Amino acid sequence: MAYELYYWPTIQGRGEFIRLALESAGAPYVDIARGPQDDGQGVPAMTHFLEDKRVVHPPFAPPFLKDGAVVVGQTAAILQYLAPELKLVPRSEQARIWTHQIQLTLCDIVAEAHDTHHPVGTGLYYEDQKAEALRRSTEFCSARMPKFLNWFEAVLARNPAGQRHLVGGKLSYADLSLFQVVEGLCYAFPKASARVLAKTPHVLKLRDRVASLPRVAAYLRSERRIAFNEDGIFRCYPELDV
């Protein structure tokens, strides 16, 4: 049975972290909101599920995943649920907790990257908060982005199994998520990210290795990979790339 992924159909956003895990493992899945409404899919199917009062454990917002009778929301929780079946996490409990911790830290930088263009409120347009966005982006590019990427660099450098992966000696969902974060930062802040990546070579090499994985490379070339755009989390406003 195919997994059912529910996320907005025109952006990568937080759903892309789930797509990358499923694609890298070759797992069958249906991207429900991108499907035809005539087949019971599309955005109405997603919003109906969110509003259905019969759902005992309702997700707060997309992304959420349906696996038979199991429904899981929140990016980190979905990946934690999928990883053992997809073989994207080591077997030991200690390693799984460590992988989850790394993923939660990745979720933190994703949230901070989003808030560079919407620092006041998500209900406002970027144009309504440009002054605050510039101030927030200046701090993000000069302090927060380096702090996060230097931490991931240290995690890679200190991995007892080698510097090719964040956890253990094989690909994990944390590697895939770090790849996506770096891709997003390079799109949104090309100049600032280049400065930081020049000082974090292990992170840069991991990005390149993940991009070259056969299934990931095929996905990145396919129509299933939505292009970055100014409706998603990572948005390219040149005036914020400071």
UniProtKB/TrEMBL annotation:
<dbReference type="InterPro" id="IPR004046">
    <property type="entry name" value="GST_C"/>
</dbReference>
<dbReference type="InterPro" id="IPR010987">
    <property type="entry name" value="Glutathione-S-Trfase_C-like"/>
</dbReference>
<feature type="domain" description="GST C-terminal">
    <location>
        <begin position="92"/>
        <end position="240"/>
    </location>
</feature>
<protein>
    <submittedName>
        <fullName>Glutathione S-transferase</fullName>
    </submittedName>
</protein>
<dbReference type="GO" id="GO:0006749">
    <property type="term" value="P:glutathione metabolic process"/>
</dbReference>
<keyword id="KW-0808">Transferase</keyword>
<dbReference type="InterPro" id="IPR050213">
    <property type="entry name" value="GST_superfamily"/>
</dbReference>
<dbReference type="InterPro" id="IPR036249">
    <property type="entry name" value="Thioredoxin-like_sf"/>
</dbReference>
<feature type="domain" description="GST N-terminal">
    <location>
        <begin position="1"/>
        <end position="90"/>
    </location>
</feature>
<dbReference type="InterPro" id="IPR036282">
    <property type="entry name" value="Glutathione-S-Trfase_C_sf"/>
</dbReference>
<dbReference type="Pfam" id="PF14497">
    <property type="entry name" value="GST_C_3"/>
</dbReference>
<dbReference type="InterPro" id="IPR004045">
    <property type="entry name" value="Glutathione_S-Trfase_N"/>
</dbReference>
<dbReference type="GO" id="GO:0004364">
    <property type="term" value="F:glutathione transferase activity"/>
</dbReference>
